[in-house]
Amino acid sequence: VPRLIHLKPRRGPVSGGTVVNITGSNLDAGSNVSIVFKDQPCTFLRRGGQWITCRSHASLNGYGNVSVSVSVDKADLQRDLRFEYVEDPTITRIEPEWSIFRSGKPWSPLFFHLVVPHVLSG
Question: Contact, 52 vs 22, CB < 8 A?
Answer without folding.
Answer: yes
